[in-house]
Amino acid sequence: MRPITLDPRTKLAMIFGVSFIVMVNAVTPLEWAIRIAITMIPILLMISEGKYAAAFRFSLLYGIALLLLKCFLSSESTGFLSAMLLGYCGIIAQFMPAMITAWYVIRTTKIGEFMSAMQKMHVPDGIAVSLAVVMRFFPTLKEEYSAISDAMRMRGIAFGGGKVSKMIEYRMIPLLFSCVSIGEELSAAAVTRGLGAPMKRTSPYELRLKAADWIIFGIFALFVGLFVAVKYLR
Amino acid sequence: MNDNKLKAKDFITVGIFTAIIFAVEFLCGMLGLIHPYIVASYVIMIPLVGAIPMMLFYTKIEKFGMLTLMSILIAIIMFVAGMGWLGAPLIIISGVVADLIAKKGGYKSFKSTVISYGVFCLWICANYFPVIVTAKSYRQSLLDGGYSAEYCDNLFRAINSKTIAFLLILCFVFGMIGAFLGKAVVKKHFEKAGIV
């Protein structure tokens, strides 16, 4: 299957659409249907990009959470365990769509593409650059963190002697150290590539809205419109 | 004047520290799943834990706008993460005010840094805004979202329009305490290593 490559602007629109729909609570089955349908879009896009494992994992998690929520639990269930379970399922059902979309966008957008899209939308340089760094940094943060955990486990100090303050300190300080040095490298690399030069930057990525972009835009406009109509214009 | 403009390096610094702060916030948020009273204790946890990266961040600030930019980024991320736009004004206002206070101290004086961080911490309360402003419908959405009635009742007992003032003050106070703590940690680890 040929991967469907989308314009970064379309992806941003997707994020906003999904987080809007997820934020408003869904009550009726139709609203739930819209929510689930809109979650399916990034999953399908992931499959088209060949990320089968992630797509499978996300849909499995989301499916289980929804199933548990609908079939076994209600607002009357009390007790610690069911409250915890309910909390997890609620969180997953609530935030998973936004997380899936964000994951898809972060994984499939090149930073160059993102910057060029931001420039086309006339977003101020400061916000564009910092957002790009945030986007790029989450995976790095996770990698560094797992490396630190590994090192600590090897030395047998994973729980910091059972003290909460030590646990935080042992993890946070090395993380900050590596983040600071990564930041320095990053800005050196960025300056070499002409970031912060007074000229207008050019980009090797030529962004054009293609048929696929318009289709996605259309689907999302339809869903959001439908959702608002069902929700507020009854 | 030109010297006071933010450069690419500053933007990158802001981006990195925003990512770290958000990771801290996210991990603390996960704890909130266990019991609603933990949700209320965000105002203590996040200022204290977040103080360490923030104090390191403060040592890197030299120009006006970095804190403001950070608050704008946090507002954007909170929106994308599904927290809504109700809190965005509070986040950005606290960022700007914190920036102004720190500017007054020339970004170097520790006293203004402490107050500035206290003000900056007020953004945490923005997470509670959906709870307070739309209490009724938010409760319904939590119930529909699958939280138990018990969780909701506890949540609303801890967070309502009466306690929010108290929570704001707590945020501010623990922000300042956190600033001292963070300063000590930064001194212990980073100044010795010659990073700042």
Summarize the structure in words.
- The complex is a heterodimer of chains A (234) and B (196).
- By secondary structure, chain A is mainly alpha-helical.
- Chain A folds into two domains: 8-110 and 207-232, no CATH class; 122-192.
- Chain A has helices at 8-23, 29-48, 52-71, 80-108, 111-120, 125-155, 164-192, 211-232.
- In chain A, helix 1 (8-23) runs antiparallel to helix 4 and helix 3 packs antiparallel against helix 4 (80-108).
- The mean pLDDT of chain A is 79.
- Chain B is mainly alpha-helical.
- Chain B has one domain.
- Chain B is 75% helix and 0% strand.
- Chain B has ten helices and no strands.
- Chain B has helices at 8-31, 36-40, 42-60, 66-80, 88-104, 110-120, 129-133, 135-144, 149-158, 163-193.
- In chain B, helix 1 (8-31) packs antiparallel against helix 3 (42-60) and helix 6 (110-120) packs across helix 10.
- Chain B is elongated and about 50 Å long.
- The mean pLDDT of chain B is 78.
Largest sheet of chain B: none
Can you summarize the main beta sheet of chain A?
A: none
List low-pLDDT spans of chain A.
none
The radius of gyration computed from the alpha-carbon positions of chain A, rounded to a whole number of angstroms, is 21 Å
Which secondary-structure class do the elements of chain B indicate?
mainly alpha
The number of helical elements of chain A comes to: 8
β-strand percent of chain B reads: under 5%
Number of domains of chain A: 2
- Tell me the number of structural domains of chain B: 1
The number of helical segments of chain B is 10
Number of strands of chain B: 0
Helix and strand sequence of chain B: HHHHHHHHHH
H and E order of chain A: HHHHHHHH
Strand content of chain A: under 5%
